[in-house]
Design goal:
The chain is mainly α. Helices cover 53% and strands 4% of the residues. The protein is elongated, with a radius of gyration of 28 Å.
Amino acid sequence: MPLTLLQKRAAQAIINIYETGSPEGDYAMVTLLPGDSGHLTYGRAQTTLGSGNLHLLVKAYCDAQDAFLADQLSPFLGRLEAIDLTLDHDFEFRSLLAQAGADPVMQEVQDAFFDRLYWGPAETAALSLGLADPLALAVVYDSKVHGSWVRMRDRAIERHGRPQSIGQRGWVQRYVGERRAWLSAHSNQLLRRTVYRMDAFAALMDANNWSLALPFTVRGRLINADILGVSPIRITAEDARQRTLKLTTPPMSGDDVTALQGALAERGWAINIDGIYDEGTRRCVTQFQEETGLVADGIAGPATFSALDLA
């Protein structure tokens, strides 16, 4: 049975916590850890400079319509494609990445990018093994993001057989055990420290939460339906073209004045609809404001537009 949207988001939230410490993920996170073979990493699922995937992500952003920082990031595409490791310490580039993470376009690009590079292949890999539980798919997805899925999959099959022979849940438990043992003995000290990923999965298995039923916690972070909702986009939807209209010298004019005059005329005010904010218009606005309980100053701003159903 296909995963529900909440189950998919719950699975991804687990890996977001592993990668960024937050179930929502951190689209702006730029990381450089000494000894990390991936070098500079970025974004919700921490894609890397060393793999070449950071180049693909930034290129997708620069190619996207209305990308706010496309012009500033485009000059770095050649160095990204060449996997220029001096970018690790290029603080102009790192600052631009962090700023781009606040752009809703970058957030949409990252969601699509990580689905294409990691989630889709994880679904295919899980299906090929007959793994249907949401938690099982989360385990495969984690290995796709973290790396070495094929190596650990083959080791688990060699040592324990295929899921069809021992049961999918039993196989996933053994896979997690094999991966934990491999990580804990790895020559890279940073990888040894990531055994917490397998420990967190083991805790969910011990709780028998194979369906990723909400709420649950991972590494002390709560995952519930509210957290998995659509993240707010912090940008005003107010129409920047809507001016505050008032009597000036020379008088203000335009379509917005015409619309204001027309709305007043529809409500019975005797007003000349000529698109010029003159003394007669100011007087009508003031009288309308008095009758509707607004500040009667003759200045048509957001409250007056709203009362006239123009905003």
